[in-house]
Design brief:
The protein is α/β, with parallel strands linked by helices. It contains 24 helices and 9 strands. A 4-stranded mixed β-sheet has the order 6-7-9-8. A 3-stranded parallel β-sheet has the order 1-2-4, with no helix packed on it. A two-stranded antiparallel sheet has the order 3-5.
Length: 603
């Protein structure tokens, strides 16, 4: 088969038939550049309007309220700020964050998010607010998620309306709304983009497409381990399916693979620190894996299905993978359509030229084999999400303990987001098939109704909190920025082994504030905790005892920050406790008051 663009229909391997179909690179009739850009702008506008309807936040609220709580969302702020700081000032020690002093690679204790750290830095420089910058970043990443899912689905189906539906269904699923505070999970949009670039390289290999694929591979590798694991598994499935189907390896594909692979090697500096950290610490027990009931559990507080949000076992936000019943119904129809389109076709006369369709019509062409590849990749990723089982072997049991990087993944149910991508693609196939014979206006109207129903099914309230950024709270950190370098202990030092909730809400805000001075901290909070941390916390609680002072000297601590009074989300000292510490240090230290806190300099 020969075409003027990529494949739009499958021909059995070894067939001698030649078919010429006049289409452009999207699988639809030739589209003028002005029309193409107008379509893209309209689609982006739809996604922005949908996002505003789902989040309902004014600029003032985005400026002052962080998503979810003062734990992981605030940790992500520190990760983004520290990553950018190291990129600019310490690229050779890129993964050495300023927490858990004197341990190395502390940025690799969680997802590094280096691929979006420059964007966060730009937003921070514009807004001068950690919270506002994070909220804007999350909103932009959700738009990217919708747009890349749209691009992948339109390339597969040739239907703009169905692709918009898929973008909304995947971009605002129960998983996204329940995990909105975890910006590291919002980079899920790189996943469909990576699959699209890979499919395009396999479909019509070229150096340009290979370069794009390699760069997207780096975005994924420097983003989040969860999506890197899903992407690698999915890419292996897609490549294997393509090679088994075509049974050939043309030279342009070999060249493209070499180019993309050479660029992808630049991901090694992002992976080696994770391997070292995971070798240093024992493998962590994984949380419960994906359950069938998770697919009908919407985000907490679902407006339309409040009962479903509370009925499913394991009621936590790692298991809210609802895509909407309309998506389930259309996906079932799409699976039937895909199966029917996969049947052998009758013979086609040689050199048949298909008549071009009107420019305003949907192509109606489905890339059957590529759609199957995406469905199989989603199924493989979902199999990983099952986690471990005492009753039967699972893919995670076979690979999770052996592949570098996977041992750092605990919430394996998150990998079940692959199911949602597969469902969104199948639902788009079903919607495109159901409306294919309808006139353009009716087709758009039906798609709009489907999109509205999906958004209503998925809608839910989003929790918000406030990260203090007032001058009084930040005064001690701004003062420390002008002092000579030296390690810092902030008291009280929260111990996650004895007070997990206290540590989760106490240390992340301090970590964010510490990016004002970037002095190393003995304190910290992340996916791993150093082996000596609990011992150090106990010693710091006993200040100014002799063993505590000896440990301060051993760590090279130069400063103490004493947090007093009432602070949002944080453990604090009483005035009497702070005075006892300062008096016990005596001539060894000098203290100064900044806002509600004291800065103690050790001599």
């Amino acid at each position: 088969m020969t075409t003027t663009g990529p494949e739009v229909a499958d021909v059995a391997p070894g067939s001698s038939r030649t078919v010429t179909i006049r289409v452009d690179g999207s699988g639809s009739p030739a589209e003028r550049p002005a029309t193409r850009w107008r379509r893209r702008l309209i689609v982006l506008a739809i996604f922005f309007v949908a996002e505003q309807a789902m989040f309902r936040r004014t600029p003032g609220q985005l400026h002052h309220r962080a998503p979810a709580n003062l734990g992981d969302p605030v940790l992500v702020m520190w990760i983004l700020r520290s990553g950018w700081h190291n990129l600019l000032h310490h690229p050779r020690t890129l993964f050495d964050g300023n927490i858990f002093w004197p341990y190395k690679h502390t940025l690799a204790y969680a997802d590094s998010l280096l691929s979006v750290a420059p964007l966060y830095a730009l937003l921070f420089n514009i807004t001068h607010s950690w919270t506002f910058a994070l909220n804007l970043l999350i909103l932009l990443l959700i738009i990217v998620n919708c747009a890349t899912t749209y691009s992948l689905t339109r390339w597969l189906t040739g239907s703009t309306e169905a692709a918009v539906f898929a973008g909304l269904a995947f971009g605002f699923s129960g998983f996204i709304l329940s995990q909105v505070g975890h910006a590291q999970l919002m980079v899920i949009g790189f996943l469909p983009l990576g699959f699209l670039c890979l499919l395009k390289v396999l479909d019509a290999p070229s150096v340009g497409r290979a370069i794009a694929l390699g760069l997207v591979n780096l975005l994924i590798a420097y983003g989040a381990l969860y999506w890197l694991a899903l992407y690698v598994v999915g890419a292996v499935v897609i490549i294997a399916f393509h090679l088994l189907r075509t049974r050939r390896l043309p030279r342009p594909l070999v060249v493209a693979a070499a180019v993309a692979g050479a660029i992808s090697l630049a991901a090694l500096p992002a992976l080696l620190p994770y391997r070292q950290v995971q070798q240093q610490y024992p493998r962590r027990a994984t949380l419960p894996g994906l359950r069938p009931g998770d697919l009908i559990r919407p985000a907490t507080g679902s407006y339309l299905y409040p009962g479903l949000a509370n009925r499913v076992v394991a009621a936590d936000d790692e298991h809210q993978l609802f895509a909407g019943f309309i998506v389930f119904g259309l996906a079932a129809g799409g699976a039937v359509v895909l199966a029917l389109r996969s049947r052998p076709r009758p013979a086609v006369p040689r050199h048949f030229i298909a008549p071009a369709k009107p420019p305003d019509a949907t192509s109606g062409q489905l890339r059957v084999s590529s759609t199957w590849a995406i469905v199989l990749a989603a199924a493989a990723g979902s199999a990983l999400a099952l986690g471990t089982s005492s009753h039967f072997p699972t893919p995670w049991s076979a690979f999770g303990a052996h592949l570098p990087g996977l041992s750092g993944i605990r919430a394996v149910s998150r990998l079940g987001v692959a199911v949602l991508l597969g469902l969104a693609v199948l639902a788009a196939v079903g919607l495109a098939a159901a409306t294919a014979r309808a006139p353009l206006r009716l087709r758009v109207a039906l798609a709009a109704v489907a999109c509205a129903v999906a958004l209503v099914e998925l809608s839910a309230p989003l929790p918000w909190t406030v990260l203090p950024e007032d001058p009084a709270t930040l005064a001690v950190y701004r003062a420390l920025d002008h002092d000579p370098p030296g390690a810092v202990v902030e008291l009280p030092l929260a111990d996650p082994t004895t007070d997990a909730l206290g540590a989760a809400y106490t240390e992340p805000p301090r970590m964010v504030w510490s990016t004002l001075d970037n002095h190393p901290r003995v304190n910290g909070y992340s996916g791993y905790t150093p082996a000596t941390y609990s011992h150090d916390a106990a010693l710091m609680a006993a200040l100014p005892s002799a063993p505590s002072l000896a440990r301060l000297s051993e760590l090279g601590v130069r400063y103490l920050i004493l947090h007093l009074g009432t602070q949002v989300g944080g453990l604090t000292l009483t005035a009497g406790q702070a005075a006892a510490i300062v008096d016990g240090l005596g001539a060894r230290a000098s203290a100064a008051r900044y806002g509600p806190n004291e800065l103690v300099t050790l001599r």
